[in-house]
Amino acid sequence: PAFTDPDALLGTPFYMAPEQLTDTASERSDVYGLAAVLYEFLSLRHYLDRGTGPARELQPLFRQIVNLEPLPADDQRDELGRRVPRELAAIAARGLAKDPNLRTQSAELFANALQGWLEGTCTEKCPSSMLLRGIHAWRKTLQNHPMPTTLLSMAVAATFLLSVAFTFSHFLGSL
Questions:
Q1: How far is Cα 130 from Cα 109, in angstroms, rounded to an integer?
Q2: pLDDT tens digit string along 8-58?
Q3: DSSP of 78-113
Q4: Which of 146, 2, 29, 133 is CA-nearest to residue 124?
Q5: Exposure string (b/e) for 47-64, b if CB count within 10 Å is 16 or more?
């Protein structure tokens, strides 16, 4: 029977967590690999890619894994100029934290974060998160209660327009 050498590195080098190279792997190491795949899926680039791709030889690649911080996934744009949603980029970034203690603590929590994003209840805090959650909640309410939500939306819009008109007329009157 064949046995694995206890000193051998196990894993796919392009998706290994920094601690796998210097310490002991844990469930958080698996989260790192998942986040690396998510990053690649979202941005269509490897998380270590700086234009020339990650290093192709093991020792330079290992140095990149330990020392190189990934560019934010939402900085990447596809050929049509579209960006990765900030919340998804934040989920990937948290999974790619170099320090395992700062990383998403389990694959289950990582999956929950992704599920939350799909459901519009993402807990990752980004500048646009509150607005997006509000829009998502309004859309869900509109689907469940179309008539009252439409009437309320029209009342809010009318109030806003009247206040702008009043402020503008008051401003012109003071000139």
A1: 21
A2: 667 788 899 999 887 778 889 999 999 999 999 888 888 988 877 788 888
A3: -TT-PBPPHHHHHHHHHHT-SSGGGS-S-HHHHHHH
A4: 133
A5: bbbeeeebbeeeeebbeb
